[in-house]
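Chapter review: from sequence to fold.
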Amino acid sequence: MQSIWTDVLVSGVPIAEKIIRVVIVYFFLLIGLRLAGKRELGQFNPFDLVVLLVLSNTVQNAIIGNDNSVLGGIIGAAALLMLNYIVVRYLFSHPKLDRAAVGKDVILVQDGKVLMRNLRRELITRGELSSAARRQGIPSLDSVDCARLEVGGALTFVLKHPTSDEAWRKDILARLDKMQAKLDALHA
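The token string follows.
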């Protein structure tokens, strides 16, 4: 019974080594994913998903080393979570460094024209862009004034003309403003 508890609770790798391993792998992945592009973060296709799943399994041993203990896993996970908290908090208080770390958004459609050069650079096909537009209720890229790939990997679209909901809201607000003006005139 004692050997079970020893295997569960005694880390096979010194704690300092485990923390150093976490730091090295964390920054390697941060830099690698930044260089791979925003697509890796938000616009997965099946190939991207497979790469990220295999990548996580590949670096697992680099983080835990020759340690299969529960305590070793908890220490590695805690170090990873703490490091991420510190980095995110630091970048939040240093906006210039944050912009350099995460990059900037990329315009994919401007004034209704698809910018193929930017699509190629971000490894997004026109079909993937059209599909993302349809998921947001936009039937065609012809109706898009601007589309951008945000720093987090999300695609956002601005239509040339407002949607029927937006037009309805604008009309209602205009009517309410007229009613308010008439009420103000009556009270005056």
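Two observations follow directly from the output. Residues 63 and 122 are 30 Å apart (CA to CA). The chain has two domains: 2-102, 104-188.
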